[in-house]
Amino acid sequence: MSNSNSILFVRWGAVSVREAVELQSVLSEMIPGKFNILFIDPIAGLKDVNEQGQLYSASTQRWS
């Protein structure tokens, strides 16, 4: 990580706005430089996932 210009963290599971802000705050104290956090909250019953060898794709829903 020390050689990277930017880091992407992935959080799987439901997260509240408060939790997202808290995680961003904690990481900003630990990580020098630029980073992004991708929050992925799976939707129960969603069947639109495709597997092609090592390539996976899935439907997403925007959180706003």
Rg to the nearest angstrom? Answer: 15 Å
Q: Which structural class is indicated by helix and strand composition? A: alpha+beta
Please, what is the oligomeric state?
single chain
Task: Label the overall shape.
Answer: flat
Low-pLDDT regions: none
Q: Overall mean pLDDT score?
A: 77
The portion of residues assigned to helices is 10-25%
Most strands sheet: 2 strands, parallel
End-to-end separation: 30 Å
Topology:
Elements: E1 6-12, H1 17-30, E2 34-40, E3 49-52, E4 55-58
Describe the structure.
This protein is α+β, with helices and mostly antiparallel strands and 64 residues long. The chain is 22% helix and 34% strand. It has one domain. It is flat. The strands form two sheets. Strands 1-2 form a two-stranded parallel ribbon. It has a two-stranded antiparallel ribbon with strand order 3-4. It is built from one helix and four strands, in the order E-H-E-E-E. It has one helix at 17-30; strands at 6-12, 34-40, 49-52, 55-58. The chain starts with 5 loop residues before the first strand and ends in a 6-residue tail after the last strand.
